[in-house]
Amino acid sequence: MLDGKRVLITGAGGGIGQAAAIPAAAEGARVMIADVNESWLEETIEIIRAAGKTAEMRVTDVTSESDVAGLIDDTVAALGGLDCAYNNAGIEGAWARTADSTLENFDRVVAVNQTGVYLCMRAEIQAMLKAGTPGSIVNTASIAGLAGAQFMPAYVASKHAVVGLTASAAMEYARKNIRVNAVCPGPIETRMLSSLASNHPRASEAMPEATAMKRLGQPREIAEAACWLMSDRASYVTGVALPVDGGMIAGP
Prior knowledge:
48% of the residues lie in helices and 15% in strands. It has helices at 15-26, 38-50, 65-79, 103-131, 153-173, 191-199, 201-210, 219-230, and strands at 6-10, 30-35, 56-59, 84-87, 135-140, 178-185, 241-244. A 7-stranded parallel beta sheet has the order 3-2-1-4-5-6-7, sandwiched between helices. The chain has a single domain (6-189, 218-244), classed as Rossmann fold, CATH 3.40.50.
């Protein structure tokens, strides 16, 4: 799907981001991966190399305007341009009821999940407009960006914001041939879910039963949806917040 594309993926040190980087490189894309954790990035690079492919990497804090600007500059320089971007970096934050949550946690989650997506998307669009070439951007939202969820007010607020940012940018740049979409994962087997299982075992155990398919999703299942949205196969798709959740959002 992404053969010949120049692709940037944030949050690529593990989970969904890593699962997207591996097939993108395997399919012939030129790939830049970014994450705040260097050792995680190196792990992804090693997996890609073991498959006989290559990728560039850059340690990046998506909450930093200067870091994001440097990432986009390095991506354009290393790959020769930017065709597709997958803004996947995100955190879940601390679990607590709204009245028991802290402003410090709220600000941190919003900084990564909301401001980070905004900063990346803004810089990516600027690069695409400057080049005058078609572009495709995908943001990781969540089913928690489509409905409420208990014990995670900051996460829910930030992911609703990602859905809104996606729709706004899609409307603004459709006639410039830049598509902007979001993928909305349900419960996926990642480090984030492992953290939940450690701290809230009952909640994590209930998640598979909350889906119509009665199972957790795998990172590759989200990654493949994101890769499709980035690709030319989704050429008439923009402004979409696509649930990939085993039917979780469909039920009561």
